[in-house]
Amino acid sequence: MLPALGFIICAIFLAMIWALFKNKKRISSSPIGRFFFGFLLIILSIGAVNYFLVGINANRLYFWQQTIYGVSLGSVYALIALGYTMVYGIIRLINFAHGEIYMIGAYAGFFAVASLGLPFFLALMFAMLTSALAGVLVERIAYKPLRKAPRLAVLITAIGMSLLLQNVGQKVFGSIPRSFPRQFTGLYRIGELNIDQSRAIIFVITFLLMLILQYFVVYTKPGKAMRAVSQERDAAQLVGVNVDRTIALTFFVGSLLAGAAGILVAIVFPQIRPTMGLMPGLKAFVAAVIGGIGIIPGAVLGGLIIGVSENLVTAYVSSSWRDAIAFGLLILILLLKPSGILGRNVKEKV
Amino acid sequence: MKTMEKHPNRINHSPIFIFLGLIALVFINIQVLFDRLDFYVVGVLSVVAINIILVVSLNLINGITGQLSIGHAGFMAIGAYTTALFSIHLGTPIYINLIFSGLAAGFVGFLIGLPTLRLRGDYLAIATLGFGEIIRVILQNLRLTGGAAGLGGIEWFDNFFLTQFVAIAVVIITWRIGGSAPGRAMVAIREDETAAETVGINTTKFKVMAFALGSCGAGIAGSLFAHRMTYISPDGFTFMKSIEVLVMLVLGGLGSITGAIFSSTLLTLLPEFLRVIDEWRMIIYPALLVIVMIFRSQGLFGTMELDFGQVKNLLEKLIPRKPLEESNNPNPRLEETVSFGGVKIEGKGPILETKNLSISFGGLKAVKAFDIQISRGALHGLIGPNGAGKTTIFNMLTGVHSPNAGEIFFNGERIDRKSPNSVARSGIARTFQNIRLFKDLTVLDNVKVAFHLQADYGLGTAIAHPPSFGKAESRITREAKELLKVFNLIDHSMTIAKNLPYGAQRRLEIVRALAVSPKLLLLDEPAAGMNTLETQKLMELIRWVREEFNLTILLIEHDMSLVMKLCQTISVLDYGIKIFEGTPEQVRNEPRVIEAYLGEEVS
Q: What is the secondary structure of A14-25 as a DSSP string?
């Protein structure tokens, strides 16, 4: 009964996306269509993994419980990955400082809840805005002057910004981890399955944000400007797009999502520390690459894949191998299909 | 055009840095030798030397070959753990451990490099990051390597002189590689991978070679590190360590060995001084990095120093040598003594033949069932409106794109499944429609790179520098200069290619193609952007080249007057299909050709 439930949930998820984008003619050529197939792939793999792992452990319930945990963790990765993918799409930069933006979001949320006593959803807004401003500031200070510089220089600057923010964080917030006040301690039960309220909230908010983002990028004017700049910056400028403002906006939106990820992760894993951004940042980037960098549904897909596989590795192998799975998947994907699951292989023009 | 300044882009003071560095080195050695320095200070100097090894070896991958690796710490870890295991279990001395650590890391680098180096740019960076992390996680989980706790009890060995010696050896080896044919191949890959392939450089081979050598260096550094620390754990080889090395490299300037040495020394010593304000060190350090990048993004030294000629020039001034014999032949023709590849046209049948050649990109069928036969010594034209598929055919002929269907025979040998470099090896050279020179190299180096196939020595020779190396190198330089002279480019030989006037860039592309000593030369719109006079000259040049080098030439051109006057046979392409083939006269009068160019007549 439980596997069937899993399939039904996925199917609903797919149907919603499908309904939203049914006007697309060719399924295989639209990113959303490929998202659909990507998701089918995940369901099949989870089914296969389920078959093997349950064979070992003979505990179906445990498997699905872990998969659900994985989905909520994956949602956090997905939110961070969205920022990575958008920034990469528009200025071809791996924004290493993005993990720190996520950390800032967590701290902003912490202070909003613990010091200002704001209700959670206001704190969420506060965290998102703080992160967004931080993201735009980083872009303004560190990346904008380097717009014409070699890509590697910008990459190094990003690494420098990441280290800087981490260490400034240590100074400002102290290196001792803080404990985020407990939120949403409720528990839903579906059959024999436990779903914490907090994890459900993570997933729902991520999903909503992704839909809003997809709408924003595809249908609104600034979103179209973003896509134009990401394809051909000079031409976009010629037709009147304010490139600098569009890039800043991209950082703003990407950082909004990272801020949301920061506070959302804290309601499930309440320990926050200044160095918390490093690993999730890297893994979120890996998620973006796995899904196909520059492609919004790809980032979500990649995030979910990494979240689920990490949790399954922790559950069935050992938590010390957890960090290897993300990078292992990354290398597998890069070798099989460097442009990512939803990406298209582009031949170099000679 | 002849009055071009000789070193437009060159900073000529690098030897001063080197000599200052040498003086500092001698000074430090005297100090250490007479025990004038604190134990701690000597230790810091060893760390400097280890970091120099790391940075210089990473420079080989990132700077010289242009492959972005950000997982160097992983290879350092492999070296360190190899040493630890050898030292703990076998009790071997450091000299043996150094060698095996280097080999182990180099071997892993080879294994990892082979599949990943197909990736370009950022993707490669991410893959190396992934591998670096995986190596660390594996070390963390193996019982053999002591898990997260790491390994202790490695024999303590921290001799500044040995560390220094290894560092200097690594620097010299990298230096020598940089000045040899394999090094030029690596630089060519950095500048333009596709163009490098088309002059016969096996890019995969040299990328993997650079990667394995760089990893080997990291392994050696890891070995020294392990012997110095006596205790190692996976925490010492995290992503942050890789970044630290990369930062040192980039700060000094990618591709500059001098810069690498300078910045690794600076960044190792700086924290020692900043320790006074220790509290703020970790903030100042990255802030400094960001500031340097914003205000001098090419690093402190840029790519200065990639050309090792300056040091050599300086040495030559100090130690008088027999100068290279310059020829004073006023006639800008070839000297009898020098013969360029240009094998006599021999064999039977057409030199090039394609059958049913087809390719499509996505839904677009770019070329459909293209058949052509080019006879030996011919000057064959390929014309057609924009987007007809002419350049795509060139790309298929040279192996850049592999056709979906059909066969290509060159000299009777099937070449359509070959890589671009082996196509070049079998004797096809080309130029590009949108000039693809190695644009940050000098004109001379552009040609020397293309003499790659004639450089009949390997990496070992390049490192060991036996007399045969010098002979081979001076032969290559002489022949390259000879070619430049013939094409009136000798005065520009030290100009950076991208600073050449447009017409000269086109000529240089032809020179570069000829340096491959081809039997068939493919010219892709050589007259594009030229005026009538320049086109006229070019036409004479092409005719002359064909005679002098015994070539067959296939030419894509839009300039009808040029094609009509030059070519004996012309093939006309439209929408990927060959619509006509014949003599210029026939082509001129063929209604289908006129229709393709001018559209259908209104009737």
A: HHHHHHHTTT-S
The runs of H, that is alpha helices, within B117-159 are: 121-141
Complex ipTM? 0.80
Chain B residue closest in CA terms to A319: B141
CA atoms within 13 A on the CB side of B354: 22
Structural domains of chain B, count: 2
Question: Are residues B358 and B233 part of one domain?
Answer: no
The answer to whether B432 faces chain A, any CB pair under 8 Å, is yes
**Which of A160, A163, A335 minimises the CB distance to B115?**
A335
pLDDT at A20: 47
> The CATH number of the domain where B363 resides is what?
3.40.50.300
Query: Which candidate from A152, A171, A335 shows the least CB-CB separation from B254?
Result: A152
**All domains of chain A, ordered by start, with CATH?**
2-16+30-336 (1.10.3470)
Interchain proximity A167–B140, CB inside 8 Å: no
Which residue's structure tokens are 């004109």? B443
pLDDT band at residue B115 under the 50/70/90 scheme:
confident
Q: Does residue B405 sit at the A interface (CB-CB below 8 Å)?
A: no
Q: How many CB atoms lie within 10 A of CB B275?
A: 10
Interchain CB contact of B267 with A (< 8 Å): no
Give domain status of residue B472, yes or no.
no
Out of B192, B218, B237, pick the residue that ends a domain. B237
Residue B433 lies in a domain: no
Helices (H), chain A: 2-20, 31-57, 60-91, 98-114, 120-138, 151-173, 197-219, 221-231, 233-238, 243-268, 278-291, 296-316, 322-336
Residue B176, domain extent: 42-237
For residue A154, give how far its alpha carbon lies from the nearest alpha carbon of chain B (Å).
8
* pLDDT at residue B591, rounded to an integer: 87
